[in-house]
Structures are given as structure tokens and as C-alpha cells.
Amino acid sequence: MAASPSSAIAVLGGVAALGAMAACSLVVSTDGLSGDAANAAESGGETVPDGGSNDEGIVDGGSSSGSVDPSSATSCADILRANPSAESGAFTIGARTLHCEMSLAGGGWTRAIDLDAARDGCPSAWRFDAEPGGCRRATNQVDGVVFDAPLSSFTEVLLSAVGRQRASPDAFHSDDLDRAYMDGVSVTTTIDGKRAHVFSFAVGLTEDATIEPENHCPCDKGARTPASFVGANFLCDTAVTTGYPEEVWQTTKDLWAQDARGADCTKAVAPGPRLSTVKLPSASAGPLEVRLMADQPRSNEDVALKRLVVYVR
Questions:
Q1: pLDDT, tens digit, for every residue of 250-305?
Q2: Is the previous residue joined to 287 through a cis bond, with omega within 30 degrees of 0?
Q3: Which of 149, 168, 195, 256 is 20 to 30 A from 290, comparing alpha carbons?
């Protein structure tokens, strides 16, 4: 179970650890997502093509830099409205430098999270594991990291992730948002003082229809349905095609890419991480919380987060 908000805060190396959670500020870099996947993102979960160097399928797009008067713009959406030809890149807004994505899903997105475990390492609440090349749980519970939101208010989220599977995760299995309701990566925010679901990157057991169908991804026959708070805002994937998973890291396949399926049960045509858009029920002022979760010990099942990119608008 995630630590309560009353947990003591310890500051470790500039990262504030909140029990099993850690608070992180916005990570800013200049590698963006290109406009090639704009139409795909509009459809809520198509593939982001890889045009880049070492970002595990999240593409590098063209960028531009600019200075915007803080009195006239407070977000990337404001910049795009003022200049519809603005390109993706780093902009100075007020006292901050923020990365704006101007091509995908209508543009005007402000980057909130840019996590690359191989490049950045892992926040203090997680542990880097070289075998899967990503961040995994530090405990046998739910380990979360809190990221500051770059905007004072947002209603939409655009995100993609890359992960790896260990042993035998069993997709969705609970209707309690505050606990390990699935095995995978949960992204939430705060609305009206309460934790609110944004998106679930779930991991199923196997594609083998003869083995424990209830523990498969939701599109498989006999699988459990995600909790009502998840709705259609999820992707589920497994790295195991036949048989029961061995208790090892599945290192030959990245999760939540071409083969991942959401509520419509379709797979992507092109390879690379799938990009999804979420419309929140009402505005959030943040923060964004990313939780690695599973209902069994790490030796039995686990997930490693290699890459996570989140934009808000």
C-alpha cells in the first residue's frame, strides 16, 4: 500500500522521499516527440515512430528555443495560440524553462515527466536494475514517486512508457486505487484533494490461452475487467507468448509498444511506444504520481520502468 500523506519526508540527494514515495521536480531536456505521430496520438493510443538515437523508441523531433513574456503566456498552449507556427522545443515561461510539444495531438503540450532510467538513473523510492535496464520497486509493496506539475491547472494528459516484465504478473485484480489494483505502472494525479486515476500500464501473465486466463490482459477471453476508475485509460501487454513465465526478467521485448492493447483491443501497426491521450473529469493542479505496483513479492512478479514521457495541457 502506498505511504500516507502524513509520512515523514527525508531529503536524499535533492530528492524528497515520502515514505515509499519520493517528490521530484520537473525534468527538462530538449529531446522531444516529433509531429509524425500527431494523427496517431489523436486516436488515443497509436505507435510513436522511432526517429531518434538512444531513447528506446520515443522519437527526437525538431526543436526551437524562444522567450515569451510571462504576462502573455503561462503555458505551451498559450505560446501555440500566439504563434501557430511555433515548433517543439524549450521555451522560457516566467522564471522557468519548459519543453513544449507543438505537433502531437493538436500541440500546446507542456512536458511534466521525462524519465529515462538508462540516462538519469532512478528516483530514491525505486531501484535501478541493470538486467532489465529500468527502475523497479525497492520494496515488495507499492513504491511511488511524486512529480511536480509544470502548470497550475491542466485537464489533459499525453503519455507513453516502456517497461520490462519479470516472472508472473497478473494484470488487473483489485478495485482499490490506493492499493496495488494491478501489476504494472500507475499514473495518478490529485483532483479535489483526492487521488485520481490518469492511466494504467498493466502487465499480463502470458498470451497462452491455456494458462490462467483470469491473469491475462483484459482483451483475452476469461480475463478480469479493469476497475471502473480505470475505464478505457489503460494499455496492457505481456512479454510471454507461450507457456508459464519463468522467474526471470523478460529482456527480449519492451512492454506497451506495438503489441499492447487498450480498451479497443487493437494492436498498433508500427513498432515503438504507444502514445495515449487522457481527458480528466475535471481540472487538476497536480502533482503527478507514478507508482510501480504488484500484489506479490518482487521475486514472484515485478515490472521495470525504462522510459516514461508525460505531457499536460
A1: 999 999 998 899 999 999 888 889 999 999 999 999 999 999 999 999 988 999 99
A2: yes
A3: 168
Q: CB of 183 within 8 A of CB of 303?
A: yes
Report the residue count for the chain. 313
User: Which has the closest alpha carbon to 272: 117, 47, 52?
Assistant: 47
CA separation for the pair 76, 99 (Å, rounded): 8
Alpha helices in 87-178 (DSSP H): 117-120
Please say whether the beta carbons of 172 and 182 come within 8 A.
Answer: yes
Phi, psi at residue 4, to the nearest 5°?
A: -80, 160
Alpha-carbon distances of 184 from 201, 216, 234, 246, 269, rounded to whole Å: 6, 13, 11, 18, 23
Instruction: Judge whether 213 and 206 are in contact, CB under 8 Å.
Output: no
Looking at the chain, which runs of residues are DSSP E strands?
9-12, 15-18, 21-24, 46-47, 66-68, 89-93, 96-101, 109-116, 126-129, 134-137, 143-147, 154-167, 184-191, 194-203, 234-237, 249-255, 274-284, 288-293, 301-312
